[in-house]
Amino acid sequence: MQSVIVKAPGRINLIGEHTDYNNGFVLPAAIQQAAIVSISKRTDNQIHLTAVDIPDELIIESFHNLSVSEKQWANYVIGVVAQIIQKFPLPSGFNLAVTSDVPIGAGVSSSAAIECAVAFGINELFSLGIEKMELAFIAQKAEHEFAGVQCGIMDQFASVFGKKDHVVLLDCLNMNYQYFPLVLEGYQIVLFDTGIKHALASSEYNTRRKECEQGVALMQLKYSNVTSLREANIEMLNECVDLQKDPIVYNRCKYVIEEIDRTQKACLDLQANNLESFGQKMYATHQGLSKLYEVSCPELDFLVAHVKNNPAVIGARMMGGGFGGCTINIFQSQKAAQIINDTRVAYEQSTGKELKHYTVRIEDGAGIL
Ligand code: GLA
Predict the structure, then answer these.
(1) 125 lines ligand 1 (CB under 6 A)
(2) Which of 53, 56, 155, 301 is catalytic?
């Protein structure tokens, strides 16, 4: 094979937010918006990169000599190559062009889409034989080391393992996963995009991760089997972390412990086709993310509050890392046009900002085009 074109999608997450790096559960799905990369072999060791949408280019003299670039988009590619070559020698350099319609900074994993497309594409082009799970881990490591975000595995997993019309319950403790058909008869999933790019997100994200680790360390003093918040419960938290002395660590841990529990229960709701109950859990998640985990922002809170009392809306919450990006909403298809319109007008009046929306279609994960 001399060249290959692959695509890898962005993702939504129905419930289970900020739980992946705490060994909890997540319930993501891949969406129709995707990154597409075209890769062809070269006869030398150079890497020629093109970002079609910006447009921009970068030439790297040798894949043996990779470092973080000033061009952020290029780091998503270079980071993946740097991971791959640690274990799988490349026979030559390559030309790679990337384009994507995954909205950037909207909390739907535009970066994971590029990383996964690159990992998948290089694996195919050079027949490296890397397993799908390892591709997801390679893409995650690229984000850690070249983008500086200590992200969990959810986004890259969803981009690689997504399945049309299914959500996937992933247990981040052992990477076991299970697909569920998403049957939403008469309902649809719509994302409202605040238009706020999550600029604070990477530093605050890494801070949240540390705060969770601090909580685990405190509980471990008494409960040695607690190695992550997955093994903790509220009683242990109350016993080991003082709400008065350490309110931040306490609240972060409380949210995560509750969310891990809520996600498992929400899956039972979905299996029982109890959308009503599922939707209530989405609101509870939002409340926790906003008040305990403090990763929301006024615009996200506004969008959730605006739809909350509408009987045609099943549930809504902020989605992804936070500090901007999208809310995810489930509402009656019949009322969709009206809800979207009302929300747009209200949002524009309240914030002066334009409200974009995306009607979600759930698609397959990464693959050759
Ligand atoms: C970002 C990260 C994910 C996950 C979510 C929050 O999207 O990349 O690993 O932690 O935030 O659930």
Answers:
(1) no
(2) 155
Host domain of residue 112: 3-183
Q: How far is CA 32 from CA 163, 238, 255, in A?
A: 11, 43, 31
Check pocket membership of 24 for ligand 1, CB cut-off 6 A: no
Q: Is residue 126 part of a domain?
A: yes
Query: Which atom in ligand 1 lies closest to the alpha carbon of residue 107?
Result: 7
Alpha helices, DSSP H only, in 47-131?
Answer: 72-87, 110-125
- Residues 282/263, Cβ–Cβ less than 8 Å: no
53-74 tens-digit pLDDT: 999 999 999 999 999 999 999 9
The phi-psi region of residue 299 (left if phi > 0; otherwise alpha if psi is between -120 and 50; otherwise beta) is alpha
We report the CATH number of the domain holding residue 118 as 3.30.230.10
pTM comes to 0.97
pLDDT in tens, 238-271: 999 999 999 999 999 999 999 999 999 999 999 9
Residue 301 annotated to the active site = no
Residue 116 belongs to a domain: yes
Is residue 295 domain-resident?
A: no
Report whether residue 151 contacts ligand 1, using a CB cutoff of 6 Å: yes
SS3 of 155, please?
Answer: helix
Q: Is residue 304 part of a domain?
A: no
